[in-house]
Inverse folding.
């Protein structure tokens, strides 16, 4: 198995801040690796280390088998980087921006023209090709920025929060482009603050916080850690409770619970919430149980963090207490 990238014990400190505090990760070639974490977690620092923009204090990093510290120049030849903030020239047109990048890559004038045209079309920017970038919307800038890092046909792409601040429609467009690139063999490292994004795109996810990896695996595995999705049914009437519980028995993965104050039945459904939601609706309909409201809750990044840090805190507490007792 060849690896898109691998980092071992990577550390980078800024004074007292441990931006990376011993990170070890690896990603398969041809896959999407999602790096998930809140503000200040160390995502950008890791991306910068992998793309040779900063030298780590400790540890090692390789991109497509090439050592980032020993051979930064060779690494730069195979990577594309779309930073957290679009790095395009406001006063050039979209076309001119890509053209300039092509020439920086030493493509011939003819090849650059061809590549520019092709990318503008692919990124849905053909209509705006001759407009100055300062007239572009945020989503258009992000697409152009992605285009700029595709000019050199990179084998691996680093995308630092490519969809933060985009509207849902534009986000979907970008997801589509990213999937397309991967289907053509590109490896991708994507950072995001949205679990949903990592969920639909990434083959593997690492959650980082304060420079450390706190969880790693497929999205199914991470969600399973949280106990999975939950469906909430608010009943019209207390009288339907038994009938409803009976109807959803086969769907619940664990015991359901009922809240009298809100007449709400909560059903844990594991990892395939939307499929279960349809089953719940059908079953309740068959049982002729009127529903006041229905909601599907999928674990969010907040849930991941609450669970992860909560679990850690309680481990520390239960570990520490008996020791203190024994000592006394
Ligand atoms: N050049 C720097 N000088 C000082 N501190 C830095 C520097 N770069 C990063 N840091 C600190 O390192 C930590 C990690 O920053 P980083 O930018 O990697 O986080 P991030 O996960 O990308 O956050 P965000 O989601 O906000 O982009 C933060 O506490 C940040 O303040
Ligand atoms: Mg960042």
């Amino acid at each position: 198995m060849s690896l898109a990238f691998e980092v071992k014990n990577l550390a980078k400190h800024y004074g007292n801040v441990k931006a990376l505090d011993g990170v070890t990760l690896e990603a398969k070639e041809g896959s999407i690796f999602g790096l998930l974490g809140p503000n200040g977690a160390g995502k950008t620092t890791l991306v910068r280390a992998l793309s040779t923009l900063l030298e780590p204090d400790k540890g090692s990093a390789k991109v497509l088998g090439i050592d980032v510290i020993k051979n930064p120049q060779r690494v730069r030849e195979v990577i594309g980087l779309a930073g957290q903030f679009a790095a395009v020239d406001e006063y050039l047109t979209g076309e001119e921006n890509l053209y300039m990048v092509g020439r920086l890559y030493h493509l011939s004038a003819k090849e650059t023209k061809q590549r520019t045209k092709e990318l503008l079309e692919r990124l849905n920017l053909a209509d705006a090709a001759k407009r100055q970038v300062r007239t572009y919307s945020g989503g258009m800038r992000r697409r152009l920025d992605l285009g700029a890092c595709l000019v050199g046909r990179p084998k691996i792409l680093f995308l630092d929060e490519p969809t933060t601040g985009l509207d849902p429609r534009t986000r979907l467009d970008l997801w589509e482009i990213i999937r397309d690139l991967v289907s053509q063999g590109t490896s991708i490292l994507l950072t995001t603050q949205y679990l949903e994004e990592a969920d639909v795109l990434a083959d593997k996810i690492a959650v980082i916080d304060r420079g450390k990896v706190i969880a790693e695996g497929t999205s199914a595995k991470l969600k399973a850690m949280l106990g999975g999705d939950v469906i909430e049914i608010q009943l019209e009437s207390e009288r339907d409770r038994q009938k409803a519980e009976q109807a959803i028995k086969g769907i619940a993965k664990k015991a359901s619970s009922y809240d009298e104050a809100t007449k709400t039945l909560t059903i844990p459904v594991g990892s395939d919430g939307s499929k279960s939601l349809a089953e719940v609706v059908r079953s309740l309909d068959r049982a002729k149980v009127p529903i006041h409201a229905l909601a599907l809750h999928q674990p969010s990044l907040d849930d991941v963090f609450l669970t992860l840090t909560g679990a850690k805190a309680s481990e520390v507490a239960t570990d520490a207490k008996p020791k203190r007792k024994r000592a006394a």
About this structure: The longest helix spans residues 301-327. The two ends are 54 Å apart (CA to CA). Residues 228-297 form a domain with the Alpha-Beta Plaits fold (CATH 3.30.70.980). The pocket of adenosine-5'-triphosphate (ligand 1) is lined by residues 14, 17, 19, 37, 39-45, 84, 193 (CB under 6 Å).
